[in-house]
Structure prediction request, 776 residues.
Amino acid sequence: MNATHQRVKSVLTIYVQGKLASTIDMEHSSEKKQYALGRASDNTIVINSPIVSSHHAIFEMKEDGCYVYDSDSTNGIHINGKRIKSVKLKNGDNLRIDDINEPHKDGILIVYSLLDDHSDERWNELQLEDQTTMTIGRESSNDIQISHSSVSRKHARITRDGNTFFLEDNQSTNGTFLNGKLVTSKTKLTHDDVIIVGHTKLIFQSTKIIYNVQSRGMRIDAINIIKDVQDSKGGLFAHKSTKRILDDISISVKSGELVALIGGSGAGKSTFMDSLNGFRLPTEGTVLVNGDDFYSNYNAYKNIMGYVPQQDIVYDTLTVREMLTYAAKLRMPDDTTEDEIANRVQEVIKDVELEGREDLVIKQLSGGQRKRASIAVELLADPKLFFLDEPTSGLDPGMERNMMKLLRKLSNNGKTIILITHATANLNLCDKAVILGYGGKLCYFGPPNGALEFFNVEDYADIYDLINKESDKWQKKFKESIYYSYHNSLVQKDVKMTERKTVSQNSSFRQLMILTKRYLKLTLIDKQRLAFLLLQAPFIAVLLSIVAERDSFTFYETSKEVIFTVAASAVWIGLLNSLQEVTKENDVYRRERAVNLRLAPYIFSKILVLGVLTLLQSVAFIIAFSFVMDLPTNSLIGSVKIEWFVTFFLTTMAATSLGLAVSTMAGNSDRAMGLAPILLIPQLIFNGLVFKLEGFSELISNFAISKWAARAISISVDLNDKPTELETRALVPPRNLPHYYDHELSLLYQNWGILIGFSVLSIIISLLVLKKKDKQ
Ligand SMILES: Nc1ncnc2c1ncn2[C@@H]1O[C@H](COP(=O)(O)OP(=O)(O)OP(=O)(O)O)[C@@H](O)[C@H]1O
Prediction:
């Protein structure tokens, strides 16, 4: 059986005295093949240099990769500063025949690259001879230009001080990485240091920089991926055991390939995809992107990776163009101009074939078009590696086919695409299929039509039945097949896994501005909701006027009734402002957070917009309230209306912040709203005006916003000075009045301070909850 015709080759790029001398292609095949390197003419690779021995080294192509052996040469072979006798080469390895401590003028550099038919990787070089400063960036004025949207205009620079070179990041949005670590300060460069900017790898070579220019997609290798999880059988009290949900999966996806991940429900497709894109790390195994350990270089590569989750990552009420423009501003480097953004937005609209619909509000689009809009959001950053979780779910057969054709087109243009799908009718548009059986067992990996032959069925749908019943059998059968031996030979192995760290480098202030503008727009668009929120306060004032007299502040009892209602209303209005504001955009949040969204700008953009809303609600309340009720006249700060306004605003703001914190914790919008009574009822019970608070109940009441609001209003209206009706008729002796209701400015300030404290505490809780969610 002829598995496939795709080829992978090893390429040696040889530099002599700093100049490109030759490139040698070495084919991978099942038979061993040797390439001798040396000065003598009987070598396959002849290098006429005094520092090369006549028979210097042997490169041997084996089924599992390329090995190099030193033939007892005088000057040896050095990799990463170490002299080696024999080693299996990894993509991007630099071999030197040279003096490690003091590079020789005749020094020889050999770069090993693993390429495939689709790859058009080229190596360029920049001599560092005369210049004192060399720049790297997107603009053409840079010494090394990298035309990719993840790269800033002036991204990084290399400076010279005598014979020493230093690397500096130029406040780029996506960061500069040196040997896998983010460059945060001016860092000295040493020979063979590897710099990553965007998707370009640059190697510092004392007198020059060599760098790869890769316009096509990325190759991805998954190596022995295993995922074990805790499995509690038999309910809460049963003992915990370990369950394997990914069972030693290795696959190799070449650049520009479209690969479908298929299998029954619960087979492990999402878990495997999350291992490939680094969202959830496996228990064992690793993933290589273009030969680099993806997990330890996660920060360097995450910006060239796109991910479209199953749920749409768009706001329904924005137009396609508005949604894409905000997303572009958030995701593209800070120095991207408005024109560049507008052009990029237009390009992706064209890519996903939504031309003519760009000014429609997203909720007016069909299911397929909505999905295209989600894909467009991810295409903005021009990802080379693209993951999609069931992009065809919910689409009719026609739309499903169009979606698969669109993905085919994108992969033809150089993106490596991996998608979870049940759209088996269009599987032949894919280059490969990964078929998973239960327990994350790899039952097949190879060309889709090969799968029909392998499972001996006529329809892809029949495969589900077979693997659902006998995953173990098909996993074993696959391991014995030609597909397994072919693809397994392509997978690069022997790389250690390290823990990843996340960083986001774009300006917090800029994010705050973009997020605030977007949130304001979303708030203003929903006019019905906005009107409802703004009219609540006057509505409550009108209702009050029905049950309470204009002169309610004459007596103690009636004053208390009004204060109780106002404090409770302010808390309620605040909670309604924000309870759903984070939960309702969970999907967009999660995706933006995975790319570069910062927590503080996110939460403060909400606080800013909701703060303005609260301010307007407070003004509306005071105006309406003073129409229906006579406010007392003896103010502590000069105006009773201002005192009431401040108290109402601070109370509503504290409740808004509390609502936001609860919104970060609730799983979805319905659950958040379900919590509203639980939050409000304690405010009614513990405000101190209805029930006497002592001991434990007093302790709990400290957590009720309404208690401090009630106190502040009571101080303003001088509650202690109001007689009860019986007192007026001199039927009872004067009461024992609580000091905290005294008409004193310091007490008023104290309560305002506590209300502000509630807001601050809730904001901190929101940030902590979102931070904790990152780890889930
Ligand atoms: N953290 C976890 N702890 C316990 N079990 C887990 C965990 N994550 C996943 N699983 C289980 O592993 C199996 C594979 O889950 P996964 O979501 O990857 O499957 P899937 O093939 O994507 O399913 P579907 O098509 O239904 O989305 C399921 O049985 C799931 O319940």
